[in-house]
Amino acid sequence: MLKPFAPGCAKGDPVIETAPTPRARVQAMKEYHPPLGCRDSLRLDFNENTLACSPKVREALAAISTGALTRYPEREPLELLVAAHLHLAQSQVALTNGVDEAIHVLFEAFLESSDEVLLPVPTYTMYEVYASATDARIVPVQAADDLQFPFESLLAAITPHTKIIAIANPNSPSGSMATRAQIVEIARRAPHAVLLVDEAYFHFCGETVIDLVGIVPNLIVARTFSKAYGLAGLRLGLLAGPVELMRWVRRVLSPYSVNSLALACLPPALEDTAYLDWYVGEVLQARADFETALDACKLRRWPSRANFVLVEIGARHAEFVRLMRSAGVLVRDRSSDPGCDGRVRITIGTRQQMQQASATLNQVLAAMKAQL
Ligand code: PMP
Q1: Which ligand 1 atom is the nearest neighbour of the CA of 168?
Q2: Among 8, 127, 129, 134, which is most exposed with the fewest C-beta within 10 angstroms?
Protein backbone atom coordinates (compact mmCIF):
# COMPACT_ATOMS: atom_id res chain seq x y z
CA MET A 1 0.00 0.00 0.00
CA LEU A 2 1.23 3.52 -0.79
CA LYS A 3 1.92 5.84 2.08
CA PRO A 4 -0.27 8.96 1.85
CA PHE A 5 1.65 11.71 0.11
CA ALA A 6 2.44 14.10 2.92
CA PRO A 7 4.49 17.14 1.76
CA GLY A 8 2.23 19.88 0.48
CA CYS A 9 -0.95 18.04 1.46
CA ALA A 10 -3.48 20.23 3.13
CA LYS A 11 -5.46 18.84 6.01
CA GLY A 12 -8.64 17.32 4.69
CA ASP A 13 -7.20 16.53 1.19
CA PRO A 14 -8.32 13.06 0.00
CA VAL A 15 -5.64 10.43 0.64
CA ILE A 16 -4.82 8.33 -2.45
CA GLU A 17 -4.49 4.76 -1.25
CA THR A 18 -4.12 2.93 -4.55
CA ALA A 19 -0.93 2.95 -6.62
CA PRO A 20 -1.17 3.64 -10.37
CA THR A 21 -1.27 0.29 -12.18
CA PRO A 22 0.79 -0.59 -15.25
CA ARG A 23 -0.66 -2.33 -18.31
CA ALA A 24 -2.00 -5.84 -17.66
CA ARG A 25 0.79 -7.35 -19.78
CA VAL A 26 3.42 -5.61 -17.65
CA GLN A 27 1.78 -6.87 -14.46
CA ALA A 28 1.88 -10.40 -15.88
CA MET A 29 5.60 -10.17 -16.74
CA LYS A 30 8.00 -12.45 -14.91
CA GLU A 31 10.75 -10.66 -12.99
CA TYR A 32 14.17 -11.20 -14.51
CA HIS A 33 17.19 -10.92 -12.23
CA PRO A 34 20.44 -11.97 -13.89
CA PRO A 35 22.85 -13.22 -11.17
CA LEU A 36 25.15 -10.19 -11.27
CA GLY A 37 26.28 -9.84 -7.63
CA CYS A 38 29.84 -10.60 -6.38
CA ARG A 39 31.51 -11.30 -9.72
CA ASP A 40 35.16 -10.82 -8.74
CA SER A 41 35.97 -14.48 -9.50
CA LEU A 42 36.70 -16.00 -12.90
CA ARG A 43 33.62 -14.82 -14.89
CA LEU A 44 32.47 -17.72 -17.03
CA ASP A 45 28.79 -16.93 -16.52
CA PHE A 46 27.76 -14.12 -18.92
CA ASN A 47 29.65 -14.90 -22.15
CA GLU A 48 31.57 -11.64 -21.84
CA ASN A 49 35.14 -11.11 -22.94
CA THR A 50 36.90 -12.45 -19.83
CA LEU A 51 40.07 -10.40 -20.20
CA ALA A 52 40.01 -6.83 -21.52
CA CYS A 53 39.08 -4.60 -24.42
CA SER A 54 41.72 -3.32 -26.85
CA PRO A 55 44.34 -1.05 -25.21
CA LYS A 56 43.50 1.50 -27.93
CA VAL A 57 39.96 1.68 -26.55
CA ARG A 58 41.39 2.34 -23.07
CA GLU A 59 43.42 5.22 -24.53
CA ALA A 60 40.32 6.73 -26.16
CA LEU A 61 38.48 6.52 -22.84
CA ALA A 62 41.32 8.24 -21.00
CA ALA A 63 41.31 11.04 -23.59
CA ILE A 64 37.62 11.96 -23.14
CA SER A 65 37.32 15.73 -22.72
CA THR A 66 34.97 17.54 -20.38
CA GLY A 67 33.48 19.12 -23.50
CA ALA A 68 32.51 15.67 -24.76
CA LEU A 69 30.81 14.97 -21.44
CA THR A 70 28.83 18.20 -21.30
CA ARG A 71 27.43 17.78 -24.81
CA TYR A 72 24.61 15.42 -25.80
CA PRO A 73 26.08 12.49 -27.70
CA GLU A 74 25.89 12.64 -31.49
CA ARG A 75 25.33 9.20 -32.94
CA GLU A 76 25.19 9.89 -36.68
CA PRO A 77 28.93 10.33 -37.49
CA LEU A 78 29.64 7.03 -35.76
CA GLU A 79 26.79 5.36 -37.62
CA LEU A 80 28.46 6.48 -40.82
CA LEU A 81 31.72 4.90 -39.66
CA VAL A 82 30.16 1.61 -38.59
CA ALA A 83 28.07 1.43 -41.77
CA ALA A 84 31.23 1.81 -43.88
CA HIS A 85 32.87 -0.92 -41.80
CA LEU A 86 29.92 -3.23 -42.57
CA HIS A 87 29.72 -2.16 -46.26
CA LEU A 88 26.24 -0.72 -45.69
CA ALA A 89 24.64 2.70 -46.08
CA GLN A 90 24.33 4.93 -43.01
CA SER A 91 20.54 4.82 -43.31
CA GLN A 92 20.68 1.03 -42.88
CA VAL A 93 22.43 1.15 -39.49
CA ALA A 94 21.32 2.33 -36.04
CA LEU A 95 23.60 2.27 -33.01
CA THR A 96 21.87 1.25 -29.79
CA ASN A 97 22.49 0.96 -26.06
CA GLY A 98 23.51 -2.67 -26.43
CA VAL A 99 21.58 -5.25 -28.42
CA ASP A 100 19.09 -5.38 -25.54
CA GLU A 101 17.87 -1.89 -26.39
CA ALA A 102 17.82 -2.85 -30.06
CA ILE A 103 15.50 -5.79 -29.31
CA HIS A 104 13.31 -3.61 -27.08
CA VAL A 105 12.96 -0.87 -29.67
CA LEU A 106 12.34 -3.29 -32.54
CA PHE A 107 9.61 -5.09 -30.61
CA GLU A 108 8.03 -1.79 -29.54
CA ALA A 109 8.03 -0.55 -33.12
CA PHE A 110 6.46 -3.62 -34.71
CA LEU A 111 4.36 -5.64 -32.26
CA GLU A 112 0.61 -5.22 -31.87
CA SER A 113 -2.00 -7.24 -30.00
CA SER A 114 -2.88 -9.60 -32.85
CA ASP A 115 0.78 -10.35 -33.63
CA GLU A 116 2.89 -13.39 -32.89
CA VAL A 117 6.59 -13.52 -32.04
CA LEU A 118 8.25 -16.77 -33.05
CA LEU A 119 11.11 -17.79 -30.78
CA PRO A 120 13.08 -20.98 -31.36
CA VAL A 121 13.83 -22.06 -27.77
CA PRO A 122 15.92 -22.36 -25.72
CA THR A 123 17.32 -18.96 -26.64
CA TYR A 124 18.43 -15.58 -25.30
CA THR A 125 16.12 -14.59 -22.42
CA MET A 126 15.57 -10.96 -23.35
CA TYR A 127 13.51 -11.78 -26.46
CA GLU A 128 10.85 -13.22 -24.19
CA VAL A 129 11.19 -10.39 -21.66
CA TYR A 130 10.67 -7.64 -24.23
CA ALA A 131 8.01 -9.54 -26.19
CA SER A 132 6.04 -10.12 -23.00
CA ALA A 133 5.99 -6.36 -22.37
CA THR A 134 4.07 -5.92 -25.63
CA ASP A 135 0.55 -7.13 -26.42
CA ALA A 136 1.78 -9.73 -28.90
CA ARG A 137 1.65 -13.49 -28.34
CA ILE A 138 4.89 -15.41 -27.87
CA VAL A 139 5.08 -18.66 -29.85
CA PRO A 140 8.00 -20.78 -28.62
CA VAL A 141 9.37 -23.39 -31.03
CA GLN A 142 11.17 -26.06 -29.03
CA ALA A 143 14.46 -27.50 -30.29
CA ALA A 144 14.97 -31.27 -30.06
CA ASP A 145 17.34 -32.77 -27.48
CA ASP A 146 20.33 -32.14 -29.77
CA LEU A 147 19.48 -28.39 -29.48
CA GLN A 148 20.06 -27.92 -33.20
CA PHE A 149 18.17 -25.07 -34.84
CA PRO A 150 14.53 -26.28 -35.20
CA PHE A 151 14.21 -25.26 -38.84
CA GLU A 152 11.24 -27.43 -39.93
CA SER A 153 9.19 -26.72 -36.78
CA LEU A 154 9.87 -23.02 -37.15
CA LEU A 155 8.64 -23.01 -40.75
CA ALA A 156 5.53 -24.91 -39.64
CA ALA A 157 4.84 -22.32 -36.91
CA ILE A 158 4.73 -19.35 -39.33
CA THR A 159 1.18 -17.94 -39.63
CA PRO A 160 -0.28 -14.77 -41.18
CA HIS A 161 -0.01 -13.30 -37.63
CA THR A 162 3.75 -13.86 -37.35
CA LYS A 163 5.28 -10.38 -37.04
CA ILE A 164 8.76 -11.01 -35.64
CA ILE A 165 10.99 -14.08 -35.75
CA ALA A 166 14.04 -13.74 -33.49
CA ILE A 167 17.00 -16.02 -34.09
CA ALA A 168 20.23 -15.77 -32.10
CA ASN A 169 22.93 -17.02 -34.47
CA PRO A 170 24.96 -18.62 -32.92
CA ASN A 171 22.29 -19.35 -30.36
CA SER A 172 22.67 -19.18 -26.60
CA PRO A 173 22.82 -21.35 -24.51
CA SER A 174 23.24 -24.12 -27.11
CA GLY A 175 25.98 -22.65 -29.33
CA SER A 176 24.21 -24.10 -32.40
CA MET A 177 23.59 -22.23 -35.66
CA ALA A 178 20.98 -21.82 -38.35
CA THR A 179 22.52 -22.00 -41.83
CA ARG A 180 22.44 -19.11 -44.28
CA ALA A 181 20.11 -21.14 -46.55
CA GLN A 182 17.71 -21.74 -43.63
CA ILE A 183 17.66 -18.02 -42.76
CA VAL A 184 16.95 -17.03 -46.36
CA GLU A 185 14.17 -19.63 -46.59
CA ILE A 186 12.54 -18.42 -43.34
CA ALA A 187 12.65 -14.82 -44.61
CA ARG A 188 11.05 -15.97 -47.87
CA ARG A 189 8.30 -17.93 -46.14
CA ALA A 190 7.40 -15.04 -43.78
CA PRO A 191 7.60 -11.90 -45.94
CA HIS A 192 5.11 -10.17 -43.62
CA ALA A 193 7.39 -10.62 -40.59
CA VAL A 194 10.65 -9.01 -39.47
CA LEU A 195 13.36 -11.64 -39.27
CA LEU A 196 15.81 -10.57 -36.55
CA VAL A 197 19.12 -12.42 -36.77
CA ASP A 198 21.08 -11.63 -33.62
CA GLU A 199 24.78 -12.08 -34.39
CA ALA A 200 26.03 -11.21 -30.88
CA TYR A 201 28.58 -14.06 -31.11
CA PHE A 202 29.48 -13.51 -34.78
CA HIS A 203 33.22 -13.09 -34.22
CA PHE A 204 33.56 -16.58 -32.76
CA CYS A 205 31.90 -18.34 -35.72
CA GLY A 206 32.78 -16.03 -38.62
CA GLU A 207 29.46 -16.69 -40.42
CA THR A 208 27.12 -13.81 -41.10
CA VAL A 209 24.11 -12.76 -43.14
CA ILE A 210 24.82 -9.04 -42.75
CA ASP A 211 25.73 -8.93 -46.47
CA LEU A 212 22.04 -9.75 -47.16
CA VAL A 213 20.83 -6.59 -45.43
CA GLY A 214 18.90 -4.55 -47.99
CA ILE A 215 18.73 -7.59 -50.30
CA VAL A 216 16.43 -9.75 -48.17
CA PRO A 217 13.70 -7.14 -47.56
CA ASN A 218 12.58 -8.32 -44.09
CA LEU A 219 16.00 -9.15 -42.59
CA ILE A 220 17.42 -7.14 -39.68
CA VAL A 221 20.77 -8.13 -38.17
CA ALA A 222 21.95 -7.24 -34.65
CA ARG A 223 25.58 -7.00 -33.53
CA THR A 224 27.08 -6.17 -30.16
CA PHE A 225 30.34 -4.80 -28.77
CA SER A 226 29.71 -6.67 -25.49
CA LYS A 227 31.29 -9.98 -26.42
CA ALA A 228 34.49 -10.27 -28.49
CA TYR A 229 35.21 -6.50 -28.23
CA GLY A 230 35.05 -6.63 -24.42
CA LEU A 231 32.81 -3.58 -23.94
CA ALA A 232 29.75 -5.02 -22.16
CA GLY A 233 29.99 -2.26 -19.53
CA LEU A 234 29.77 0.49 -22.15
CA ARG A 235 26.51 -0.81 -23.68
CA LEU A 236 27.00 -0.58 -27.41
CA GLY A 237 25.16 -2.53 -30.08
CA LEU A 238 23.57 -2.00 -33.46
CA LEU A 239 20.80 -2.97 -35.81
CA ALA A 240 21.36 -3.23 -39.55
CA GLY A 241 18.37 -3.51 -41.86
CA PRO A 242 16.68 -2.14 -44.95
CA VAL A 243 15.99 1.61 -44.88
CA GLU A 244 12.22 0.98 -45.07
CA LEU A 245 12.32 -0.93 -41.75
CA MET A 246 15.04 1.09 -40.05
CA ARG A 247 13.04 4.31 -40.33
CA TRP A 248 10.45 2.83 -37.95
CA VAL A 249 13.16 1.68 -35.57
CA ARG A 250 14.55 5.23 -35.54
CA ARG A 251 11.13 6.68 -34.68
CA VAL A 252 11.16 4.75 -31.40
CA LEU A 253 14.90 4.92 -30.62
CA SER A 254 16.09 7.75 -28.35
CA PRO A 255 18.56 10.03 -30.21
CA TYR A 256 20.80 9.96 -27.10
CA SER A 257 20.68 6.34 -25.97
CA VAL A 258 24.30 5.62 -26.89
CA ASN A 259 26.46 7.68 -24.53
CA SER A 260 29.55 9.73 -25.44
CA LEU A 261 32.00 7.29 -23.87
CA ALA A 262 30.68 4.39 -25.93
CA LEU A 263 30.72 6.51 -29.09
CA ALA A 264 34.33 7.60 -28.46
CA CYS A 265 35.39 3.98 -28.07
CA LEU A 266 33.81 2.80 -31.28
CA PRO A 267 36.52 3.94 -33.80
CA PRO A 268 39.47 2.36 -31.94
CA ALA A 269 37.41 -0.79 -31.28
CA LEU A 270 36.72 -1.19 -35.00
CA GLU A 271 40.28 -0.25 -36.02
CA ASP A 272 42.13 -2.60 -33.70
CA THR A 273 41.40 -5.76 -35.66
CA ALA A 274 44.70 -7.26 -34.45
CA TYR A 275 43.41 -7.27 -30.88
CA LEU A 276 40.05 -8.72 -31.87
CA ASP A 277 41.66 -11.46 -33.97
CA TRP A 278 44.03 -12.32 -31.14
CA TYR A 279 41.23 -12.59 -28.57
CA VAL A 280 38.98 -14.66 -30.82
CA GLY A 281 41.90 -16.99 -31.71
CA GLU A 282 42.71 -17.42 -28.04
CA VAL A 283 39.08 -18.31 -27.21
CA LEU A 284 38.80 -20.80 -30.07
CA GLN A 285 41.95 -22.63 -28.95
CA ALA A 286 40.78 -22.53 -25.34
CA ARG A 287 37.38 -23.92 -26.40
CA ALA A 288 38.99 -26.89 -28.15
CA ASP A 289 41.18 -27.62 -25.08
CA PHE A 290 38.24 -27.26 -22.71
CA GLU A 291 36.05 -29.54 -24.82
CA THR A 292 38.78 -32.18 -24.61
CA ALA A 293 38.79 -31.75 -20.82
CA LEU A 294 34.99 -32.12 -20.69
CA ASP A 295 35.17 -35.26 -22.81
CA ALA A 296 37.81 -36.69 -20.46
CA CYS A 297 35.31 -36.15 -17.60
CA LYS A 298 32.68 -37.97 -19.71
CA LEU A 299 30.34 -34.99 -19.50
CA ARG A 300 27.83 -34.60 -22.32
CA ARG A 301 28.29 -31.32 -24.16
CA TRP A 302 26.71 -29.64 -27.17
CA PRO A 303 28.92 -28.58 -30.12
CA SER A 304 29.38 -24.81 -29.89
CA ARG A 305 30.19 -22.13 -32.48
CA ALA A 306 30.43 -19.41 -29.80
CA ASN A 307 32.49 -18.44 -26.73
CA PHE A 308 30.64 -20.81 -24.41
CA VAL A 309 29.71 -24.44 -24.12
CA LEU A 310 26.61 -26.08 -22.68
CA VAL A 311 27.33 -29.06 -20.43
CA GLU A 312 25.07 -31.73 -18.94
CA ILE A 313 25.58 -31.85 -15.19
CA GLY A 314 22.34 -33.59 -14.26
CA ALA A 315 20.15 -33.41 -11.18
CA ARG A 316 22.87 -31.83 -9.03
CA HIS A 317 23.31 -28.80 -11.29
CA ALA A 318 22.62 -26.23 -8.55
CA GLU A 319 25.16 -27.83 -6.22
CA PHE A 320 27.70 -27.93 -9.05
CA VAL A 321 27.27 -24.21 -9.79
CA ARG A 322 27.51 -23.40 -6.07
CA LEU A 323 30.69 -25.46 -5.57
CA MET A 324 32.29 -23.93 -8.69
CA ARG A 325 31.46 -20.47 -7.34
CA SER A 326 32.99 -21.30 -3.93
CA ALA A 327 36.11 -22.45 -5.77
CA GLY A 328 36.31 -19.12 -7.63
CA VAL A 329 34.73 -19.97 -11.01
CA LEU A 330 31.35 -18.52 -11.98
CA VAL A 331 29.28 -20.62 -14.40
CA ARG A 332 25.62 -20.28 -15.40
CA ASP A 333 22.87 -22.72 -14.53
CA ARG A 334 20.53 -22.89 -17.55
CA SER A 335 18.25 -25.54 -16.01
CA SER A 336 15.20 -23.30 -16.15
CA ASP A 337 15.59 -22.77 -19.92
CA PRO A 338 13.12 -24.85 -21.94
CA GLY A 339 14.62 -28.29 -22.59
CA CYS A 340 17.77 -27.56 -20.55
CA ASP A 341 17.13 -29.21 -17.20
CA GLY A 342 20.42 -30.18 -15.57
CA ARG A 343 22.50 -28.16 -18.04
CA VAL A 344 25.08 -25.54 -17.22
CA ARG A 345 26.63 -23.01 -19.62
CA ILE A 346 30.32 -22.27 -19.28
CA THR A 347 31.84 -19.23 -21.01
CA ILE A 348 35.18 -19.77 -22.73
CA GLY A 349 37.95 -17.34 -21.78
CA THR A 350 41.69 -17.51 -22.45
CA ARG A 351 43.63 -20.80 -22.44
CA GLN A 352 45.10 -19.98 -19.04
CA GLN A 353 41.68 -19.20 -17.58
CA MET A 354 40.22 -22.40 -19.01
CA GLN A 355 43.06 -24.44 -17.50
CA GLN A 356 42.00 -23.02 -14.14
CA ALA A 357 38.37 -23.81 -15.02
CA SER A 358 39.14 -27.46 -15.92
CA ALA A 359 41.19 -27.96 -12.75
CA THR A 360 38.32 -26.54 -10.67
CA LEU A 361 35.79 -28.61 -12.59
CA ASN A 362 37.74 -31.80 -11.84
CA GLN A 363 37.97 -30.95 -8.13
CA VAL A 364 34.27 -30.12 -7.93
CA LEU A 365 33.21 -33.30 -9.74
CA ALA A 366 35.48 -35.37 -7.44
CA ALA A 367 33.98 -33.69 -4.36
CA MET A 368 30.46 -34.36 -5.63
CA LYS A 369 31.30 -38.01 -6.34
CA ALA A 370 32.76 -38.41 -2.86
CA GLN A 371 29.49 -37.22 -1.36
CA LEU A 372 27.40 -39.88 -3.10
N1 PMP B 1 22.04 -11.31 -27.90
C2 PMP B 1 22.47 -12.46 -27.40
C3 PMP B 1 22.23 -13.71 -28.18
C4 PMP B 1 23.13 -12.51 -26.16
O5 PMP B 1 23.53 -13.67 -25.65
C6 PMP B 1 23.35 -11.30 -25.45
C7 PMP B 1 24.06 -11.22 -24.13
N8 PMP B 1 24.15 -12.24 -23.34
C9 PMP B 1 22.88 -10.13 -26.01
C10 PMP B 1 22.24 -10.15 -27.23
C11 PMP B 1 23.02 -8.82 -25.27
O12 PMP B 1 23.90 -7.98 -25.90
P13 PMP B 1 24.16 -6.53 -25.33
O14 PMP B 1 25.15 -6.64 -24.22
O15 PMP B 1 24.70 -5.80 -26.51
O16 PMP B 1 22.85 -5.97 -24.86
Answers
A1: 3
A2: 8
Q: Are 68 and 121 found together in one domain?
A: yes
Pairing status of strand 42-43 against strand 332-333: unpaired
Distance 121 CA to ligand 1 centre (A): 15
Q: Which atom of ligand 1 is nearest to the CA of 171?
A: 3
Report DSSP letters for 217-261, one per residue: TTEEEEEESSSTT--TTT--EEEE--HHHHHHHHHHS-TT-S-HH
Same domain, 65 and 147: yes
Mean predicted lDDT score pLDDT of the chain = 95
CA of 5 to the centre of ligand 1 (A): 40
Please work out whether the CB of residue 50 comes within 6 Å of at least one atom of ligand 1.
no
- Whether the CB of 172 sits within 6 Å of ligand 1: yes
Task: Give 96-146 pLDDT, tens digit per residue.
Answer: 999 999 999 999 999 999 999 999 999 999 999 999 999 999 999 999 999
For 11-44, the pLDDT digits (tens) are 666 666 788 999 999 998 988 888 887 778 899 9
Indicate whether 190 and 218 sit together in one domain.
yes
Same-domain pairing of 105 and 251: yes
Say yes or no: 350 and 316 in one domain: yes
Q: Which residues, at least 6 apart from 297, have a Cβ–Cβ distance to it below 8 Å? A: 361, 362, 365
Asked whether the whole model's pTM tops 0.70, one would answer yes
Q: How many angstroms does the Cα of residue 201 sit away from the middle of ligand 1?
A: 8
CA 108 → CA 29, 131, 132, distances in Å? 15, 8, 11
Domain assignment of residue 32, yes or no: no
Residue 101: CB within 6 Å of ligand 1? no
Using DSSP, state whether 91 is helix, strand or coil.
Answer: helix
Ligand 1 center to 11 CA (angstroms)? 52
In this structure, is the dihedral angle defined by the CA atoms of residues 333, 337, 339 and 341, taken in order, positive or negative? positive
